[in-house]
């Protein structure tokens, strides 16, 4: 009986491996639009897809980012300036993409651009802190997607949204998790809405990887600025040592958890774009698979107790 079950399992894994290893053809005819290509996953993905033969349209936030990417890629790759929080910029990018892709339409859009600060206990933040991050991480994703959706439908293509494990579980105050939960909800609706048109909508939920988003120095600078502007009564509620304790705790966790192999994430993004049968969700990173996803299925009293145990008092 045991051998029979083992055999069935092995057969199932072999079937899945074979199915998932198939890639789409005619990559040279397929345009892929990626946001946030200056650094991190977006930058690496743009170069990787370019090497594989796709026609990459790389949205960069800065001129330096555009120049770096142009230097490192073939002339198939096009860069454009893009601020996802600015609808005018998003619209201009979409108009240019329409002329580039022509009748074939756009094979894929990868909503990758994002930031992680400000992040701090909720009563340290203002609504403006929320609005600024949500404009990039959530409204930016929606705006960019809507701007190119007709082109994606024409190609019966794909929308790949970069969420996070913190779109499945929220651990620390601030707008980051709020934005990623929103990306998850948007992705889930879109997947169902677009299935009848032959469009696939996929979601990447990475754990912690070493990029600017998890840079302890960027994070510490932001938290210190927020602390400095706090009214004295809020500072008194937390006590004089709280800032140092929380900075140390976050620094230690980020060092322990952050994986420097960004190709684990880029490989999942490539699969979502290029596989004939992509997965609905990808969770790259050992911490995603072993810590955050299992925790996300636990009852709130368990996760609350764990988080309360680990955050400084
Ligand atoms: N690293 C992780 O552990 C992790 C985990 C889960 C999910 N993610 C997600 O992965 C995505 C990529 O982040 P990353 O880790 O690769 O960090 P990253 O290196 O900071 O990449 C984010 C990119 O977005 C760009 N960007 C920022 N604001 C923008 C705007 N308004 N318009 C257009 N582009 C903008 C940044 O440009 P500049 O560099 O010029 O500012 C940068 O190139 C993000 O959505 C992030 O939330 C990251």
From TrEMBL:
Q: Known Pfam families for this protein?
A: adh_short (PF00106)
Q: Does the keyword Cell cycle apply?
A: no
Coiled coil (residue ranges): none
Q: Which Gene3D superfamilies does the UniProt record give?
A: NAD(P)-binding Rossmann-like Domain
PROSITE patterns (alphabetical): ADH_SHORT
Family, as annotated: Belongs to the short-chain dehydrogenases/reductases (SDR) family.
Q: What is this protein called?
A: Dehydrogenase/reductase (SDR family) member 9
- What taxonomic classification does the UniProt entry list for its organism? Eukaryota, Metazoa, Chordata, Craniata, Vertebrata
